[in-house]
């Protein structure tokens, strides 16, 4: 039975939540392995819509155990409010497991995120302001606070004080911000300890045993390949590794245990926050994609930048993740265009370039080279099989598959759980 990684192949918001939820019914464990509540994953079940930020989307499938792995950064206040929000809607969240090694987003990490962005002014990243980058920076700097620290008051005290010793200097002298009292932070954090204790487990041991016992384990990425701190459009990235290797480090599972890596790919492209985006549209087509696709951030409510499909990026995602399959989402949004441009390569300094350039300046200057594909006007939201799609929609999917370098095994034709065409099973 497989261990699968499901991740974003573009700049996030590809529809990972829906894809994870769809598989959730046949999966034993769904594991978040990086990121935090910067994610916004929408799941639509019948007439109910859920927006999940920190919890794995598998939490909505009763048979599935949701796991927050060691690579995730956890804001305890957000976690508890997300849990109680789901409980109020009748969702059982008691099976949740959290790694004791996951790092905690502290109130001072959130402050640092906000003041740094303000300080950067025009050069800002456009972060979600959730404290993600500063928390990962503390982790790498070895000054982070982990979930397990909540259960040892004296250690928590020492660690928070040590972290604030330096941070308060920076906050006061560089950012002109008042100092943060360690005592207050410790008190707040300790207030979460009892509520979280029951969820904490040795998730690495548990997941490895589960895989060895033939259980189905799904690793759910937050963000997307181009937001990866190593492989994305640095510095306009998030501070973790959404790419496939991140599932191994972020959950404590070796690469030999992973059978399949599924890239979630939107039939066009979107991005939130700053940074280069070669196929971005500033015209009525961009506005139409935003309106028809409902492209507004689930976490920050910002409008998403929209553009045509970029095959260079999709090929890159196949390469750096070793993708075995794609799940193409939001094909229905493209209904109604007479012709649909698809970026097949870039022009950089007068030369045609087929692969994503490693140089950031080249990428900033990349101009899309488009091929026009014929559109369709029929409603496709009721399509259940590939052959139900109009011929031109079939040809669009086949062209994207050819250009992107991995088979398209499922197609989303609407936001609902059942609005999906399954071509090859992900679980065989
Ligand atoms: P995620 O962050 O990758 O989980 O994606 P988001 O939830 O931020 O954004 C994807 C949006 O597209 C959500 O509103 C989904 O309900 C919606 N969605 C997902 N798949 C489809 C699809 O195939 N068609 C349409 N129309 N909407 C979809
Ligand atoms: P999901 O999981 C889209 C973007 C932010 C910003 C950059 C850094 O819903 O696909 P951060 O707060 O992480 O330090 O911000 O990354 N970003 C996302 N964009 N979808 C997301 O998550 C994102 N999470 C972070 O907009 O540009
Ligand atoms: Mg999202």
From TrEMBL:
<comment type="pathway">
    <text>Purine metabolism; AMP biosynthesis via de novo pathway; AMP from IMP: step 1/2.</text>
</comment>
<dbReference type="InterPro" id="IPR042111">
    <property type="entry name" value="Adenylosuccinate_synth_dom3"/>
</dbReference>
<feature type="binding site">
    <location>
        <position position="40"/>
    </location>
    <ligand>
        <name>Mg(2+)</name>
    </ligand>
</feature>
<comment type="function">
    <text>Plays an important role in the de novo pathway of purine nucleotide biosynthesis. Catalyzes the first committed step in the biosynthesis of AMP from IMP.</text>
</comment>
<dbReference type="InterPro" id="IPR042110">
    <property type="entry name" value="Adenylosuccinate_synth_dom2"/>
</dbReference>
<dbReference type="InterPro" id="IPR027417">
    <property type="entry name" value="P-loop_NTPase"/>
</dbReference>
<feature type="binding site" description="in other chain">
    <location>
        <begin position="13"/>
        <end position="16"/>
    </location>
    <ligand>
        <name>IMP</name>
    </ligand>
</feature>
<keyword id="KW-0460">Magnesium</keyword>
<keyword id="KW-0547">Nucleotide-binding</keyword>
<dbReference type="GO" id="GO:0004019">
    <property type="term" value="F:adenylosuccinate synthase activity"/>
</dbReference>
<feature type="binding site">
    <location>
        <begin position="298"/>
        <end position="304"/>
    </location>
    <ligand>
        <name>substrate</name>
    </ligand>
</feature>
<feature type="binding site" description="in other chain">
    <location>
        <position position="238"/>
    </location>
    <ligand>
        <name>IMP</name>
    </ligand>
</feature>
<keyword id="KW-0436">Ligase</keyword>
<dbReference type="InterPro" id="IPR033128">
    <property type="entry name" value="Adenylosuccin_syn_Lys_AS"/>
</dbReference>
<dbReference type="InterPro" id="IPR001114">
    <property type="entry name" value="Adenylosuccinate_synthetase"/>
</dbReference>
<keyword id="KW-0342">GTP-binding</keyword>
<feature type="binding site" description="in other chain">
    <location>
        <position position="223"/>
    </location>
    <ligand>
        <name>IMP</name>
    </ligand>
</feature>
<feature type="active site" description="Proton donor">
    <location>
        <position position="41"/>
    </location>
</feature>
<keyword id="KW-0963">Cytoplasm</keyword>
<feature type="binding site">
    <location>
        <position position="142"/>
    </location>
    <ligand>
        <name>IMP</name>
    </ligand>
</feature>
<feature type="binding site">
    <location>
        <position position="13"/>
    </location>
    <ligand>
        <name>Mg(2+)</name>
    </ligand>
</feature>
<feature type="binding site">
    <location>
        <begin position="12"/>
        <end position="18"/>
    </location>
    <ligand>
        <name>GTP</name>
    </ligand>
</feature>
<dbReference type="InterPro" id="IPR042109">
    <property type="entry name" value="Adenylosuccinate_synth_dom1"/>
</dbReference>
<feature type="binding site">
    <location>
        <position position="304"/>
    </location>
    <ligand>
        <name>GTP</name>
    </ligand>
</feature>
<dbReference type="InterPro" id="IPR018220">
    <property type="entry name" value="Adenylosuccin_syn_GTP-bd"/>
</dbReference>
<comment type="subunit">
    <text>Homodimer.</text>
</comment>
<feature type="binding site" description="in other chain">
    <location>
        <position position="302"/>
    </location>
    <ligand>
        <name>IMP</name>
    </ligand>
</feature>
<comment type="similarity">
    <text>Belongs to the adenylosuccinate synthetase family.</text>
</comment>
<dbReference type="Pfam" id="PF00709">
    <property type="entry name" value="Adenylsucc_synt"/>
</dbReference>
<feature type="binding site">
    <location>
        <begin position="330"/>
        <end position="332"/>
    </location>
    <ligand>
        <name>GTP</name>
    </ligand>
</feature>
<feature type="binding site">
    <location>
        <begin position="40"/>
        <end position="42"/>
    </location>
    <ligand>
        <name>GTP</name>
    </ligand>
</feature>
<feature type="binding site" description="in other chain">
    <location>
        <position position="128"/>
    </location>
    <ligand>
        <name>IMP</name>
    </ligand>
</feature>
<keyword id="KW-0658">Purine biosynthesis</keyword>
<keyword id="KW-0479">Metal-binding</keyword>
<feature type="active site">
    <location>
        <position position="139"/>
    </location>
</feature>
<feature type="binding site" description="in other chain">
    <location>
        <begin position="38"/>
        <end position="41"/>
    </location>
    <ligand>
        <name>IMP</name>
    </ligand>
</feature>
<protein>
    <recommendedName>
        <fullName>Adenylosuccinate synthetase</fullName>
        <ecNumber>6.3.4.4</ecNumber>
    </recommendedName>
</protein>
<feature type="active site" description="Proton acceptor">
    <location>
        <position position="13"/>
    </location>
</feature>
<feature type="binding site">
    <location>
        <begin position="412"/>
        <end position="414"/>
    </location>
    <ligand>
        <name>GTP</name>
    </ligand>
</feature>
